[in-house]
Write a structure and sequence with these properties.
Layout lengths: L1 H14 L4 H10 L12 H14 L2 H16 L3 H16 L9 H9 L2 E7 L16 H26 L6 E4 L7 H21 L6 E2 L1 H9 L20 H8 L7 E2 H7 L27 H24 L2 E4 L4 H18 L10 E6 L5 H14 L4 E6 L4 H11 L9 H33 L12 E6 L3 H14 L8 E6 L4 H9 L4 E7 L2 H9 L1
Parallel strand pairs: 1-2, 1-10, 2-5, 5-6, 6-7, 7-8, 8-9, 9-10
Antiparallel strand pairs: 3-4
Helix pairs in contact: 1-17, 2-17, 5-19, 7-12, 8-13, 14-16, 16-17
């Protein structure tokens, strides 16, 4: 299929160069293209030039976080914040409130560009350290209260985004729960996957019923954790769980089957993850009862936001974050997509999740998660980015003497990104061919759309080569620019030439519009 894809792409380059679709390639690659500056005033252009020039001064960029922190400690932050507000903030952010962004959203809309409204609130582990003056229960209560407040703010973001058709609201899951909780959940899920692989003696990626039973018994709550309502032994329930997991009835289950069945997201199996005692040595860490409750609260917050977005006609973009949160974020994303991205939904998928392709394991995760979605009959809506946490991830890797999760060089990252795009498009090719056969035989529509495609791709890239490459493949595969099975996106204030050119040619393109108080968006601006 890849050869077929390449052949079609080559043909597209030669046969459509005189068409409107062919011109977009020329305009994207044209360094003298003025479309991005035609709407800007002289003062706006000067500010942009100043900001970009400052960004190229690496020593200043590297020391900026320390300078800002020092100013805050010395109570000199007002002039610093004023300077940031008049330069970087105006360049890269839509305002301090969601309502402030409406004017920017309208400007983009007039250029054929849609909006992703992003409350720039995120958290990391250093913000989640226990206060020595608080009990664990008080700390939990504090973070749950804070998460409820942030969820309310995200609700406002969703409401504002709904003012413009086809808009998104972006969410960082660390803002809707305790970062320490998400790290603990990620540790548990990662350890469980490692144990699953160790049970797979023949290396085929699957375990049999006896291995399934043994793995269940090794779970932290394995002796009595199957049901939160009924403290029965796991033993009599193995048959039920295995039958549910073994969807193809071949007597074997793989990791997708297992993790879809034995999940923190299910009331029936959540208790299996609860730590019963400290003397179990299965190698699978457990969660405290309070952590299990807090994870359930996080799910409830996210479900409520999804319901609101659905009622308002707004979609949600779940951002990727640091690797030590990612397993938990993936778990939440699977659950929400299975509930709100059902196949053949007339409104198309509601929840999109993000893959950072600079990670060595990203392509494998993407492929596995598409298989999970197809098996469980929901649309896998995916945003691909290269990645945003390289400096902090590598510093952590060095400090803890861990294996570097990031590709060794930019060439490998480019290859990973291209492979992710190609994989998603190949899934679309298969479905489009199937639809065309159905059209010939049953009169059904042969046009691929978010309502009938098993996957939807959001190409979030500032790399013109990636955008050009994707456009060429869309032309080759006859995917209409307005079909919304492939979308594009760039950050506000960056790569306007790409965004405005795509909008001019009718492609589905978005701008990320972060907002929030200046002091809250500084981590975003620095990154």
């Amino acid at each position: 299929m890849s050869k077929h894809l390449s052949a079609q792409t080559t043909k597209s380059k030669t046969s459509s160069s005189s068409s409107k679709e062919g011109n977009i390639i020329q305009d994207l690659e044209n360094e003298r293209n003025r479309i991005a500056v035609e709407r800007k005033s002289a003062s706006e252009l000067f500010r942009s030039l100043l900001v970009y020039r400052i960004c190229t001064i690496n020593p200043l960029v590297n020391v900026a976080p320390k300078l800002i922190h020092l100013a805050e400690r010395m109570h000199c932050s007002p002039p610093v914040y004023w300077t940031i507000r008049k330069t970087f903030f105006v360049q890269f952010c839509g305002g301090e409130t969601a309502e402030d962004c409406i004017g920017t959203m309208k400007e983009f809309k007039s250029a054929g560009i849609h909006s992703i409204l992003d409350l720039a609130v995120e958290a990391d582990l250093n913000e989640d350290e226990d206060d020595s003056h608080q009990t664990p229960e008080e700390t939990r209560e504090l973070f749950n209260k804070k998460a409820d407040q942030v969820a309310e703010q995200i609700g406002t973001c969703i409401e504002t985004a709904s003012h413009m058709p086809k808009s998104f609201a972006a969410i960082k899951i660390t803002s809707t729960g305790s970062p320490l909780l998400l790290r603990q959940v990620s540790s548990v899920l990662t350890a469980l996957q490692v144990r699953f692989k160790s049970m797979d003696q023949d290396g085929d990626g699957k375990i049999n019923k006896e291995e399934f039973r043994l793995l269940l018994s090794m779970m932290p709550g394995g002796s009595s954790g199957y049901s939160t309502q009924d403290q029965k032994s796991v033993g009599p329930l193995v048959d039920d769980l295995f039958k549910e997991a073994d969807k193809d009835q071949d007597g074997l289950v793989d990791w997708v089957d297992w993790s879809s069945t034995v999940s923190l997201n299910r009331d029936e199996t959540r208790g299996l993850f609860r730590q019963e005692s400290t003397d179990r040595e299965s190698g699978i860490p457990g969660l405290a009862a309070g952590d299990v409750e807090d994870y359930k609260s996080l799910l409830d917050r996210m479900k409520k936001l999804c319901e609101q977005a659905k009622s308002k006609g707004t979609r949600l973009m779940l951002d990727a974050e640091q690797t030590y949160f990612q397993a938990a974020i993936d778990s939440v994303a699977w659950h929400l997509q299975e509930q709100f991205n059902r196949t053949q939904d007339v409104n198309g998928p509601l929840v999109y999740c993000t893959y950072q392709m600079y990670l060595k394991g990203a392509l494998g995760r993407l492929q596995q998660d598409v298989a999970r979605a197809r098996r469980n009959k929901y649309v896998k809506a995916v945003k691909l980015v290269r990645g945003a946490y390289m400096v902090s991830e590598r510093q952590r890797t060095k400090t803890l003497k861990l294996e570097d999760p990031i590709h060794a060089n930019i060439e490998a990252t480019h290859a990973s990104y291209d492979a992710g795009v190609d994989f998603m498009l190949e899934v679309m090719v298969e479905e489009q061919d199937r639809l065309r056969v159905g059209q010939d035989h049953a009169g059904v529509s042969g046009v691929l759309s978010p309502q009938n495609s098993p996957v939807v791709l959001f190409v979030a890239s500032h790399n013109v080569n990636s955008v050009v490459r994707t456009c060429e493949r869309m032309q080759a595969l006859k995917l209409a620019p307005q079909s919304e099975v492939v979308m594009f996106g760039q950050l506000m204030g960056m790569c306007d030439q790409i965004s405005f050119t795509l909008g001019q040619y009718g492609y589905c393109v978005y701008k990320y519009i972060p907002y929030g108080p200046v002091q809250d968006v500084i981590p975003y601006l620095i990154r």
